[in-house]
Amino acid sequence: MKKVILSICMLLAAVTFASAQGGAAKRKAEIKEGLKNEVKLTDTQIESVLAIEDEFRPKMSAIKNDQALDEAGKKEKNKVVRQEKKEKMEAALGKEKAKEVDEFYSKLKKKKPADEKTEK
Question: Helix crossing, 95-119 with 23-37: angle to 10°?
Fold first, then answer.
């Protein structure tokens, strides 16, 4: 009987851990789908956008986690990095499409907290 209960507990733990994985992959798939359907980007353009996002994400994260900077310093550095990112997006997509991508990500950020609350 103890073995059965232990086995069930182990199975439940494994299922819990397995279901908690894959959030980033799911999110990336949603972003790709949104860029394709809402912004009407080609697959090549989508890959460019994701590559630019992947390039700048660590920079933004490093600024966020930099203990040496105060809030004003972080805002200033983030502003510079965001401007670089914007210029790179415009070079890859053109001004109009880059603006649409930016609006898409803004909508996604506003939507994200509500989605996370319903999942928990």
Answer: 140
pLDDT in tens, 91-101: 998 999 899 99
Say yes or no to pLDDT of 67 above 70. yes
Q: Give how far the C-alpha of residue 54 lies from the chain's centroid of Cα atoms, to the nearest Å.
A: 9
Q: Which residues contact 51 (CB under 8 A, 6 or more apart)?
A: none
87-33-40 Cα angle (round to 5):
55
Cα–Cα distance list, 54 to 48, 59, 118 (Å): 10, 9, 27
Burial class from Cβ neighbours inside 10 Å (0-12, 13-18, 19+) for residue 49 reads buried
Element (H, E) at 21: none
Q: Does the predicted model carry a pTM greater than 0.85?
A: no
52, 80, 94 from 63: Cα distances, Å? 17, 11, 27
Is residue 20 over pLDDT 90?
Answer: no
